Structure formats: structure tokens, C-alpha cells
Amino acid sequence: MEHEDVTATSPERARRPGRRRDESRDEAILDATRELLVERGFENMTMDAVAERAGAGKATLYRRWPSKTHLTVDAITCRRYGDLTVDDIPDTGSLRGDLLSIRQVKHLRSDTEDLMAGLTAVIREDPQVAAAFQRQFVEARTQLMRDLLDRAERRGEIPPGRDLDMIATIAPAMISYQKVTTGKPLDPSYLERLVDTVLVPLATAEHPGSQDLADGAGALWTSADEQAGVPGR
């Protein structure tokens, strides 16, 4: 698969003097792109379908985004998923409660997870889209996890000396694996097991048992592999 240099011809760089650009039309096009990525996935989304959904002409799309890849990258990066902060997550008084509350944040649950599913195949094949996914989904979730761990530490739940940077990477990695590699939904039971058998013990137990943690993480990986038809590890 030949990959294009998206950054070299982004809409901002490609803009030419002339009639002033209608930013509201841009947003309508990007909204339509995200909707179709969720509904059809990258492979089945077409520029024609985006133009029809947005009520825009095909010439407008191609003038601003020369390919579907360019349009997809902009649709991901302009959504501002990273704007979600720890203040958006209710302070339940416990790390477990805070982590389970993340799923109750409506726009994180519906928009982010559904869009992740729509990008499954192209993330594996296109480095431009994969890089945008890394910035907007993985890094944003890792920062949110780190902030929630900091909040728990201030409450006195986390013993001194824990590597919170490392712990913060675990949930985004396993969630991405579940959604992108297996293409399966993040059902409540999976998330609860992730919190109860891996994240909370690793962060809060005085002497977390390495074998218990390994068993908990291994069970989650095995479950995801079985759903995806991946051979045993």
C-alpha cells in the first residue's frame, strides 16, 4: 500500500488566495467523515458519500483534501479528544470508582470507541492514520490515566514509589488491543476485569503479587485473542 505525505498537503498548507474559506462547511464535512467512519469503516467510506452527507460538492472536498487519507487524518485530529481532562471524571473517592466512571462520560464512550472501531484496518496499514490515532486516542487516554492516578495518590490510596507513568500506559494499550486488534466492543465486564485484576492491584496494593497480576493480565489477553481467533500465546 502506497502511503501519502499527509502533512505536506494539509488543507491549511494547500489554501490559496481567493474567496474566504467557510469554516462551518469544513466542520460539516469533518462531522460527516466521522459519522461515516463509525457507520461503514474506512474501507467502505467514500469521498462521494462524505460529500452527500455533508451537503457539499465533490469538488469542494477534493480541493481541500486530495484523498480519503488526508480527510480521515483531519477528521481525527480536529476532534480534540485530548480536551477530556481529569475534571470531567467524577471524583468518587476511590481509584476503582474513578476508573469505572470513565465509561459514563458520554462523548468519550460513544464517539471515541466507535471511531476506533471504524479505523481498525487502516491503522494497521497506513502510518499517517496510525500516527494520528496514537496522538489523539492513545496519548490522550494515557494522560487521563496518569491524572487519575495522581488524584488517587493525593487521596493516599497509592503507596510511595509506584511507577505511575508505567501503570498509566497499561489501560490504553489493552483497550487499543481489544478494539483495534480484535475489533471487539469494550463490554462492561472486560473493563471491570481490567480495573479489578490489573490496574487497581498494581497501583494500590502494598505488595502486589506479581503472579496474581500476571494471571489477571494474561486472562484478559487470552480472552481478547480467543475472540479475534489469534493463536495461543
Features:
single chain, Tetracycline Repressor, domain 2, 0% strand, disordered C terminus, DNA-bd_HTH_TetR-type_CS, HTH_TetR, DNA-binding transcription factor activity, transcription
Polypeptide structure, described:
The chain is mainly alpha-helical and 233 residues long. It folds into 2 domains: 53 residues, Homeodomain-like (Arc Repressor Mutant, subunit A, Orthogonal Bundle); 124 residues, Tetracycline Repressor, domain 2. Helices cover 67% and strands 0% of the residues. It contains 12 helices and no strands. The longest helix has 28 residues. The chain is elongated and about 60 Å long. It starts with 10 loop residues before the first helix and ends in a 5-residue tail after the last helix.
Total beta-strand segments: 0
What is the molecular shape? elongated
Assign the CATH architecture of the largest domain: Orthogonal Bundle
Helix content: 55-70%
CATH class membership of the largest domain: Mainly Alpha
Looking at CATH, the homologous superfamily of the largest domain is Tetracycline Repressor, domain 2
Q: How many domains in all?
A: 2
The rounded Rg comes to 20 Å
CATH topology assignment of the largest domain: Tetracycline Repressor, domain 2
Which residues form runs of ≥5 with pLDDT under 50? 6-19, 223-231
Strand proportion: under 5%
Distance between the termini: 29 Å
The main β sheet shows up as: none
Query: Average pLDDT across residues?
Result: 77
- Give the helices and strands as they follow along the chain: HHHHHHHHHHHH
Secondary structure category: mainly alpha
Number of helices: 12
